[in-house]
Amino acid sequence: xxxxxxxxxxxxxxxxxxxxxxxxxxxxxxxxxxxxxxxxxxxxxxxxxxxxxxxxxxxxxxxxxxxxxxxxxxxxxxxxxxxxxxxxxxxxxxxxxxxxxxxxxxxxxxxxxxxxxxxxxxxxxxxxxxxxxxxxxxxxxxxxxxxxxxxxxxxxxxxxxxxxxxxxxxxxxxxxxxxxxxxxxxxxxxxxxxxxxxxxxxxxxxxxxxxxxxxxxxxxxxxxxxxxxxxxxxxxxxxxxxxxxxxxxxxxxxxxxxxxxxxxxxxxxxxxxxxxxxxxxxxxxxxxxxxxxxxxxxxxxxxxxxxxxxxxxxxxxxxxxxxxxxxxxxxxxxxxxxxxxxxxxxxxxxxxxxxxxxxxxxxxxxxxxxxxxxxxxxxxxxxxxxxxxxxxxxxxxxxxxxxxxxxxxxxxxxxxxxxxxxxxxxxxxxxxxxxxxxxxxxxxxxxxxxxxxxxxxxxxxxxxxxxxxxxxxxxxxxxxxxxxxxxxxxxxxxxxxxxxxxxxxxxxxxxxxxxxxxxxxxxxxxxxxxxxxxx
Length: 535
Hints:
Blueprint: E1 21-23, E2 28-29, E3 38-39, E4 43-44, E5 56-57, E6 91-94, E7 97-100, E8 108-112, E9 115-120, E10 128-129, E11 132-133, H1 136-139, E12 146-149, E13 152-155, E14 164-166, E15 169-171, E16 176-181, E17 185-190, E18 196-200, E19 216-221, E20 228-233, E21 237-242, E22 247-251, E23 266-271, E24 278-283, E25 287-292, E26 297-302, E27 318-324, E28 336-341, E29 345-350, E30 355-360, E31 374-380, E32 387-392, E33 396-401, E34 406-410, E35 425-430, E36 437-442, E37 446-451, E38 456-460, E39 476-481, E40 488-493, E41 497-502, E42 507-511, E43 526-531
Antiparallel strand pairs: 1-2, 1-3, 4-5, 6-7, 8-9, 10-11, 12-13, 14-15, 16-17, 17-18, 18-19, 20-21, 21-22, 22-23, 24-25, 25-26, 26-27, 28-29, 29-30, 30-31, 32-33, 33-34, 34-35, 36-37, 37-38, 38-39, 40-41, 41-42, 42-43
């Protein structure tokens, strides 16, 4: 580097001999000539006094303007890069130039040339897939509330006017909002006040109206019950979780499934004791489970096949004491979004959108290729990721994933797995849904799904018209559309009948009707939906 070099002679000393300088055109000039745009070489780097040696340095890659014999040469510094100051969020620096690395991507990030470009974020917490913001709500036909997606939650907004949000749909505040089908009876929650209506068989008090022994082919009020939030039936007992987070059950209690510390049947709702704050409820063949707001699951009732998920298989078949579902002897299985119970097996949908099952596995209903007869602890079904809905029938289960596919496993002899075959499968197989599914339900030996348009498709056993497609009493191993039913809000399958609630609050059922379980004031089998009547 050239530092303040003054060129000249001292008295009595020889004059300093300067080298010639060369400009950028390789022209040679004497040192006393003013030269524009020169490259300076071998220039002395210090002031020189009498008798001192002169050292030489070389200045490389420096351009000096108008250098004369008495001029001062300044440091030109290092080469300046074209990306000095940094590039934009969507850019990376390549060959000293900032370039757009995101292209058509509007979200997420891209790594290029060892650098990461941020392409943007999606509004409202929507997920980003392959650089595109996914409209989760549109994909699942959601109009309100929130949806699990990618291990997090996406908001789908609020309902307008007087409509209320239920299961991500805006519904009229009249009629019914949720339905559940048992063995030969049906129950539904009223939209106003949360009261419950039931209809069908009542030989052991499953209608909850304090009139055990008298069936009803029209809807009747459950005795002294209000503010129900969710309702579930499977065989011959029904339970609700209420707005006060308490649980009430009625009907068959031979295995303590009502949870009141006895094995006495109840023709009216009884309080289920020692239950934590219950956000939702699910009934199995003879066991019951509740999920709290923290996602833990508490179960009670029959446990001869490990269906309570507490590590035990009881020789006495049942347990009055409630127990938390555990992953192992030390750890509770928390973070659950939903539960579904079969005859003697149980399944849960967790917040990371994986599916876990436990209990009886004789025909593969736990979804494991290892033919253990009973699983005492929950086991992950590795073939299913991104699940948004689960259901369990008698001895089979199903799930819907984010792609709208339906996967089923377990007993399939009646075609209830929906994959075109009539055979059981110990691991999930894909049902041949012709449209994108958003919800799935399972009857005893048939299955149904709500699609993104809120139409219904069913498959499996059709011995009593429970597929609802107007067909003769033959089973179907692939989904078929239910006739004359649209805008479905809630759906449930029983033994040989199926019921739905539409967003306008009306309830419709089809299939077997021997005990009045269709609620249309008749006992006539129907292979297409009919409207439920209220007494």
